[in-house]
Amino acid sequence: MGSQRPENNTSAVLKIVSKPYGKIELSLNNVLLPEEKLLNTPSKVDGLDLDTETDLRILGCELIQTAGILLKLPQVAMATGQVLFQRFYYSKSFVRHPMETTAMSCVCLASKIEEAPRRIRDVINVFHHIRQVRAQKPISPMVLDQHYINLKTQVIKAERRVLKELGFCVHVKHPHKIIVMYLQVLGFEKHNGLMQLSWNYMNDALRSDVFMKYDPETVACACIYLSARRLNISLPKLPAWFTLFKVTEPDIVSVCRRILRLYNRPKKNADDLERKVEELRKAYQEARLKSRGGAVSGTNTPNSNSPK
């Protein structure tokens, strides 16, 4: 009897080892988000309306772009930061994670990804400068006090959080080079106006959700399509030029509409947006404290068997 026990234990161990587990597959083909994730965002679950969330995304991307210019970052780094920012807030809520802190962390992270690193201190100072200009206050350097130390710690933690939520999959395929390649194929590589305007549309598209929903090839074709119409340039129609790049016309039209919608959208006051989010954040924190208090009070409530 005693000699049979090790055999049973060995078979049990073998069964555990051979148990199949799920796997996580990260590739360049699964960075696009499904429609249900685009519609049911964490911010919406926390009570933030769609218009306010869209305005916060636009504001955050504009902050990253402005900060990148002041930090003299290459455009590809600014674009990477904006895409990471957009991706993060489809995983986490604006109510629970401050927009400006996340924007700073995305600038820091993108500068490292694109091999143009900037110090956290410089990033914080630039955002402080932008805030002063926006509020029309006298420009003064940021004081290196406890508030600065706390903010620096928050940015470092936010950068780690962005990495964690994105599963460390931070590669971004930008349409800049794709636009150049497509224009070369179409014979417009020397048309600087068409190329520059296409790049401008692409940079503006970063403020929308097109990079979450469509692949870079589709976005590149949409930017060329918009630019050609704007400059009254005729592109091949029989067959349609975009079929050469395996892109459909409905997708191009959808991307164009999303980009043009940005120009028709009225600019919102940043302070008003922050106040809306702060109200929801306070309500969330109060509800969280109440639930914790109820749980604690429930465990401490004496029952009939407890000593008096």
From TrEMBL:
InterPro entries: Cyclin-like_dom, Cyclin-like_sf, Cyclin/Ssn8, Cyclin_C-dom, Cyclin_N. Residues 62-164, 177-261 form the Cyclin-like domain. Residues 173-302 form the Cyclin C-terminal domain. Keywords: Cyclin. Transmembrane segments: none annotated. Residues 297-308 have a biased composition (Polar residues). The keyword Disulfide bond does not apply. The keyword Secreted does not apply. It holds the Pfam family Cyclin_C. Residues 288-308 are annotated as: Disordered. CDD domains: CYCLIN_CCNL1_rpt1. Belongs to the cyclin family. This is Cyclin-L1.
